[in-house]
Structures are given as structure tokens and as C-alpha cells.
Design goal:
Layout (H helix, E strand, L loop, with lengths): L27 E3 L14 E3 L1 H12 L27 H18 L3 E11 L4 E10 L5 E9 L3
Antiparallel strand pairs: 1-2, 3-4, 4-5
Length: 150
């Protein structure tokens, strides 16, 4: 891959020097369990696939209007818990909500496949998402179940 040099006029000596750069992305987020690392005293960090997976989980479990100053954040899956008797139409709407939320709020992930299993007898939705992470070759699968609390 060729290296593009962008230099100012003051850097004329660098025109003859070969520059090599490699950009590697490391995605980092804090671990939302806030568990303390006994060695350093800091909280644990999530890296790469684990960080993106945690972000997608938070996105799926957040409802619209739940996040202050960002009313459209979330996949709003709880709204579907009591409308599951619709069958295929409810599942396709759930898929569209998930795709829309990930495309809008999680630019590190690209959705490859979504499987939705609506279970109206339990008022629950099981979701399995397969996605790839920007800058990484592997695909990651995330599974969760959204259900009523009572």
C-alpha cells in the first residue's frame, strides 16, 4: 500500500526521506461492570471485538427516549414485547430497527446477518446478530434475549 505524504513547505527535507506508517485501530471502552483490576486499581477495559459487542448490547437494550439529549438512540425492542402475535411482520420490523440503530449509532460494526425468534408465549424476543468489525477480518456473533421483567 503506497504511503501518501502530506508535508508543509517547511518540511522540504522530508521529501527525500522514506516514511513508513501503519495504522492499526484498537477499539477500547470501559467495562460497564466497573470491576476493579486488583493489580493496577483501575477499572477493566474492553478491547476490540469485546468493546464493539458491549456497545451493540447497550444499543439493543436501550429504548427510544431513554437516553437524555439523544431521543433516537436505541433499537427500541421493548415496544415489540407485547406485539409479538403479528408473526413475520413483527420479526421483520425488529430486524429493521436493529439494522437502523447499528448503522446510525455504531459505525465500528457492519451487520452481516440477523436472526430474530419472537416467543409470544413468554413475551420475549431472542436476537442473534452476526457482524464484522471495521478493520478486522473476523466476524462476531452476539446473542441476547429481551423479555419482560415481571
Amino acid at each position: 500500500m503506497p504511503t501518501i505524504k502530506i508535508l508543509a513547505n517547511e518540511d522540504k527535507d522530508l521529501q527525500t526521506v522514506s516514511l513508513q506508517t501503519s495504522i492499526t485501530r484498537t477499539y477500547k471502552d470501559i467495562d460497564l461492570t466497573f470491576a476493579k483490576n486488583t493489580n493496577t486499581g483501575d477499572i477493566y477495559k474492553k478491547k476490540d471485538a469485546a468493546a464493539v459487542k458491549q456497545a451493540i448490547k447497550n444499543l439493543l437494550l436501550t429504548n427510544n427516549l431513554e437516553r437524555p439529549f439523544n431521543a433516537s438512540f436505541g433499537a427500541n425492542l421493548n415496544d415489540f414485547l407485547f406485539e409479538l402475535s403479528g408473526g413475520e411482520t413483527a420479526e421483520s420490523e425488529i430486524k429493521q430497527n436493529i439494522i437502523r440503530a447499528i448503522e446510525k449509532h455504531e459505525p465500528r460494526a457492519k451487520v452481516l446477518d440477523i436472526e430474530v425468534n419472537a416467543r409470544p408465549e413468554l413475551n420475549a424476543i431472542s436476537v442473534s446478530i452476526q457482524f464484522s468489525i471495521l478493520g478486522m477480518s473476523e466476524s462476531v456473533t452476539f446473542e441476547t434475549t429481551v423479555s419482560r421483567l415481571r
